Amino acid sequence: MSAASNPRDMLRKIRDVMATRTESSQRLNQLVSVIADHMKAKVCSVYLRLPDDHMELWATRGLAPEAVHKTRLAPNEGLVGEVARTMVPLHVKNAQTHSSFSFHPETKEQDYISFLGVPILRARRVLGVLVVQDSQERLFAQDAVEALQNVAMVLAEVVASGELLSSEELNAVHVSSRNSMAIDGFTIVDGLAMGRAVLFEPSVVEGSRIAEDPDYELSRIELALEELQSTLDRLFEGKGHAFGEPTREVMNAYRMFARDQSWLEKLQESVSAGLTAEAAVERVRGEYRHRLLSARDPYLRERLHDLEDLASRLLRHLGGADIAAELPDNTILVARNIGPAELLELDRSKLRGLVLEEGSRTSHAAIVASAMRLPVVGGLSGLLAAVTEADTILVDAETGSVRIRPAEETRASFNERLRVRQQRRAAFSKLRDKPTISRDGQRVELLLNAGLQIDLPQLDATGADGIGLFRTEFQFMLAQHLPKQSQLIEFYGEVLQTAGKKPVIFRTLDLGGDKVLPYVAQEREANPAMGWRAIRMAMDRPGMFRYQLRALIHAASGKTLRVMFPLVSTVAEYDRAKSLLEQEMTRLARFGHSDLPEKLEIGCMVETPSMVWQLDQLLPKADFISVGANDLLQYFFAADRENIRVSQRYDPLSHGALAMFQHIINTAEKHSTDVSICGEIASNREDVIILLALGFRQLSVPASAIGPLKQLILSLDIKKAEQELLEWLSESSPDIRKNLLRFSKTENLAL
Predict the structure, then answer these.
(1) Which secondary structure element, helix H or strand E, spans residue 563, and what is its range?
(2) How many angstroms separate the CA atoms of 28 and 136, rounded?
(3) How far apart are CA 183 and CA 262, in angstroms?
(4) Alpha-carbon Rg of the chain, whole angstroms?
(5) Which burial class, exposed, middle or buried, applies to 54 when counting CB atoms under 10 A from its CB (0-12, 13-18, 19+)?
(6) What is the mean pLDDT of residues 545-559?
């Protein structure tokens, strides 16, 4: 189908309509007529959102005029509701065959078949939907779809600014609740914080969005890009080094994205279409956002987040705003998302917490926030629509939730939690050098999970007995190219040097699945968690695997090197991986290398049910094993732990899971093999009581869990817990958690 007429002409005519002094209803009618003519469509309509989330028809060219202000669609009703719900364009050749189609007779739209709807968005808030329809089956050309999106963006600013609607009409369309409310999300960085909201939402651009002089707008874009790139270079050389090597690597990757050629070309194209520089940045941001929402590759999603964050910085450069504006005391920063550069430029002494409508545990910003020890909660759907500047916000990054405008009694209760948390941290600090020995005299080793340079000081700060799981893939994931072997040797050597006489277990590369390298091609998989990843990738691509093994061998010169392999599903896989490690040792010794480990210990992750039933064949060949409970349980229950619909449908303390754990312990004891356990179950104090009763004596956990677990174990009689568990399991239908709660209260355990 032919495209719409010149989109720049359409924007000019819309600007002319807006300049008239007629009533708002007349201007709206003129607007829809201009759009219909330029889109070569029979119908153009504007639906605006009401406070109760109904969508009301406010103007139309083509539908029955009497339907205006009478036709109301329930939330998510019809194709208009589908556009509002998804916040992305909907393009349908025959609307009446679509599953979401809803017919309202008063509109007399039965003769209009094709449908194109785009959301009217401002700061990620849906103000309405702009629709064009035609009487024949047709699909509009892509440039026509993009032109309508540009118009919707202009219309959003016009609606929100009051230029088009009176204040009374605007209030009818867009109001915000002032009641106290809670929103659940997920924890990105643990902690508690209370403060005043400061909105970090640079996507709202004031002023005209239609370019008077495209050449001038293009020069503004180019100048702002130069300033952006220079600023990031300076930040990389300065604060990029302040929080260790991972933060420096993040900043280097981030500034590389600021020179992405496809992004620059998209900006130039949007300006050429008739938009101002600011509007072009938002238009391209929206296009990348649409791709992000549909991307299945987690690494790609994170990189698109980076491009969005760069767009925010570019907008600030265009507006001449101070990116590092001074924050008020006790700031809770509220954003849809944020980039690592923005975080580094903020005054940490004023910043108490960060809450994100989106966010990710694996993003570049999350790595920087962790280094800054900043409590962060993400995945807070509807956050930006609910919060206004200076609202009081309680950030609960223990449970992954926030409370907005809390009642006085809620604030008082939260303050008490903050006080108790501070007291607990002080108490945990006093336990740092105390051995973890239960009341009945049993020694338990509390090991640290690590993977970044910023994790290393926690080894001493927590009094951990060693590093039970060092994830080695982060150094590969954060770099734009394969890390140099000399860099890996230096880094692994620093880990061992920091640990001193304490053991460190290096897990070899666990890549693939949701951990994708930017410099290694990988095909998309339907089920990446069970696909080509970890040891499977290492065995098929042994070059990188051996490259890492050589770095580990050199780094452990004169020390004990402990290495374990991830996601092993057969003994044959373990044998081959072990053979490659031993071959590297032999080869280096043959070529006269003296910087070899004094001792080599090789272990295996038990993360697949298949390995649980091959332990008798595996353990004579392994020096130790580590139970990776997260993967093992999701495969055992066939429930994706990243899928909230099913991840809570099973209990790791159910009869079947406990029988599996008991089998692992019994088999390890039979072969006199050390066994540790890591994963969420090893950090949960209630679950740990059961793990200790089963016989586990090594727990590998995040730094934040070591203090609470030590306090619990010092108060626990493990032998008594073991006896209780045997009784509970003898029941026909045991309620382990109910019995556990009763036992904890009776024993006065430190939960």
Answers:
(1) strand 560-565
(2) 25
(3) 37
(4) 30
(5) middle
(6) 94
Q: Could you tell me the two tokens for 66?
A: 């009497």
Widest pairwise Cα distance in the chain = 91
The pLDDT, as a whole number, for residue 242 is 43
DSSP state of 533: B
Total residue count of the chain as it appears in this document: 751
The 3-state secondary structure of 1-55 reads CCCCCCHHHHHHHHHHHHHCCCCHHHHHHHHHHHHHHHHCCCEEEEEEECCCCCE
3-state class of 685 per DSSP? helix
Q: Which residues contact 354 (CB under 8 A, 6 or more apart)?
A: 332, 333, 335, 338, 343, 369, 374, 375, 376, 377, 395
Domains of the chain: 7-173 (3.30.450.40), 204-320 (1.10.274.10), 431-747 (3.20.20.60)
Which backbone phi and psi does 243 adopt, to 5 degrees? -120, 25
Name the phi and psi angles at 456, rounded to 5.
Answer: -65, -40
pTM beyond cutoff 0.85 = no
pLDDT in tens, 420-433: 778 777 888 888 88
> Is the Cβ–Cβ distance between 136 and 113 less than 8 Å?
yes
Q: Locate 478 and state its tokens.
A: 């954060």
147 is written with which tokens? Answer: 């032109």
Report for 399-413, 519-533, 644-658: range of highest mean pLDDT: 399-413
Tokens of 153: 């963006």
pLDDT tens, position by position, 685-702 = 999 999 999 999 999 998
φ and ψ at residue 637, rounded to 5 degrees: -95, 0
- Identity (one letter) of the amino acid at 60? T
Q: Give the integer Cα–Cα distance in Å for 343 and 327.
A: 12
Q: Which amino acid is at 748?
A: N
